[in-house]
Design goal:
single chain, 540 residues, alpha+beta, Hect, E3 ligase catalytic domain fold, four-stranded mixed sheet, three-stranded antiparallel sheet, 19 helices, 14% strand
């Protein structure tokens, strides 16, 4: 039985191999091969693989096709155009299907998927890992890429997908300004830090965050670091390192741009030629139709007109694309590139240099950067490719609340003035005379001084005088065996010594042993009539 099963499996594999080769000669929604006779189809598929190799991301590949107004071949398996070669915009799902398909690497595969029937009658298809495939034959037919390139692409797709998980190390460069995207490591827990962006006015500001523990354990994140100063320090360091390599790098960039535009122009030209071929074919069919068969002639004439409109549209797209390419590489810009080759700092800081290109240059030199905040500085431990390390420190950005906080030297002056027995209003006037302002840049007032005392836990003038043994009006009245109104009346007659504690008329009194000798004389401390002068407002 085992021999029969093995023989059946071998025959099944051989039959499937032949069928697979036949499928590989067409351009279905699942497969395509270099054996197709259409040169435009081959060039389009080759451009997809070369663009993915250059950008490292399927999304960037689709974006390139969209920006260059390039169509992609498709042979639908169903619908009104089943089996026909049609040209459509390249989508992400279509691009990933091609990148994952080993037939484009010249391999024959059988058993990549497993389909099972569910109890409700529906089916479920599952992709199997490579070690569970039934058949894998390399170099079964000519391919667009080698098997080594295919495996490298699969690894790149896998690492790119990790950019959306916890390990963001190998994500492709994106449009944001954060230079250390995928390279920043948290100096507290060692995890990869993610990038967040916020907009301030017309600027996009980056923030490096570590939220591994917040995701796993719902705990606060380790660090949240503003990236503006960090990116500036990395950029300055790279400029100092890259200056000798500026000429070689700039010329390589210029050659790459020319090569990309040449590939796009050739494909657009092929689209025009293909449309012209369809027009000639439709014209030939119309010219050979029997004039007596008017219905057929009308149908062929309508088809001819449709092909003519498609040709005109293809020519317009070609002209627009060519004009856009020429605008990108006119003489003035070529001269500008040559000038920038002599000055790499200008190339790095030039507004026309995209954030994505800066990130690519950064990733070529730097393996990772460990970020650690230490009080007022952020430590950058840089590990270059090749093993070299270097540490840089940048000042930590001041928080908004700290920017509005009163400086420590002003707080110290307020404390000293309180020791010199000045009220809040007097302190405010003295600070203003000295040219000092609050953290918000405003002139000091009594209310500002009060808030500073409250925020820094400074004792008020009243508390300091009370600590020296001075008495309130109630306490001095009790010792004089009288009431508070009489005490205040004696104060205004000059019979008692006291000190203002604020600008609202609150007083504290010296003890009796430091008062005038007649302060306790009962003959001079009688009750005061209601017609006597009123005490100071707000006296307590």
């Amino acid at each position: 039985m085992r021999g029969c099963a093995e023989g059946f499996s071998t025959r099944l594999g051989a039959q499937s191999y032949v069928a697979g080769c036949r499928l590989a000669s067409s351009t279905t929604t699942q497969t395509a091969s270099s054996s197709t006779p259409d040169q435009q189809v081959q060039e389009s598929i080759r451009l997809l693989f070369t663009t993915f190799e250059r950008t490292g991301a399927a999304c960037a590949t689709v974006k390139h096709f969209t920006q260059q107004m390039l169509l992609f071949p498709l042979r639908p398996d169903s619908g009104p155009h089943k089996g026909e070669l049609v040209w459509q915009r390249l989508g992400l799902r279509r691009a990933l299907t091609i990148l994952h398909n080993p037939r484009y690497a010249g391999a024959y595969v059988y058993g990549r998927r497993r389909t099972i029937k569910l109890p409700d009658g529906s089916t479920r298809t599952t992709l199997l890992p490579r070690d569970e495939w039934i058949t894998l034959r390399l170099d079964a037919h000519p391919g667009y890429i080698s098997w080594a390139d295919f495996e490298r692409n699969q690894k790149q797709i896998e690492t790119t997908a990790k950019a959306f998980g916890q390990d963001r190390r190998h994500g492709p460069p994106r449009e944001g300004p954060a230079l250390l995207q995928g390279l920043a490591v948290c100096g507290v827990c060692g995890a990869r830090m993610s990038v967040r962006y916020r907009r301030r006015d017309d600027r996009l500001l980056s923030t490096y965050t570590c939220h591994l523990h917040s995701m796993d354990h719902r705990e606060p994140g380790c660090q949240v670091l503003h990236g503006e100063r960090i990116d500036a320090a990395i950029g300055d360091l790279l400029v100092s390192l890259m200056t000798p390599m500026a000429l070689e790098l700039s010329m390589a960039v210029q050659d790459e741009i020319r090569e990309r535009l040449g590939e796009a122009d050739r494909l657009r030209r092929m689209q025009v030629d293909s449309a012209q071929y369809e027009v000639d074919l439709a014209r030939q069919r119309y010219m050979h139709v029997d004039p007596s068969r008017r219905l057929v002639a009308d149908s062929l004439e309508a088809n001819w007109n449709e092909k003519l409109r498609a040709l005109e549209s293809a020519r317009e797209e070609y002209e627009r694309g060519r004009d856009a390419d020429q605008a990108q590489l006119d003489d003035q810009q070529r001269q500008r590139i040559l000038e920038l080759t002599r000055d790499f700092p200008a190339l790095w800081n030039d507004p026309a240099t995209s954030h994505r290109d800066r990130k690519r240059m950064t990733a070529l030199l730097i393996e990772d950067v460990t970020l650690t905040r230490r009080d007022t500085v952020i430590s950058l431990d840089i590990r270059f490719r090749g093993g070299r390390t270097q540490s840089v420190e940048v000042p930590a950005p001041i928080r908004a609340c700290d920017q509005r906080r009163t400086r420590a030297n002003i707080v110290a002056q307020i404390d000293a003035l309180l020791d010199d027995e000045h009220t809040d209003g007097e302190i405010a006037a003295i600070l203003t005379e000295r040219g000092l302002n609050t953290g918000a840049g405003q002139s000091f007032t009594a209310t500002n001084v009060q808030w500073v005392r409250y925020a820094h836990h400074l004792k008020s003038l009243r508390q300091r005088l009370r600590a020296k043994g001075m008495l309130t009006s109630t306490e001095i009245a009790r010792e004089l065996a009288t009431d508070r109104r009489t005490v205040m009346q004696r104060l205004h007659r000059g019979q008692l010594r006291a000190r203002k504690t604020n600008d609202n008329g609150r007083w504290v009194f010296w003890p009796l042993d430091q008062q005038p000798v007649d302060a306790a004389d009962p003959t001079k401390s009688g009750k005061i009539s209601l017609n006597d002068s009123k005490p100071a407002r707000g006296a307590v």
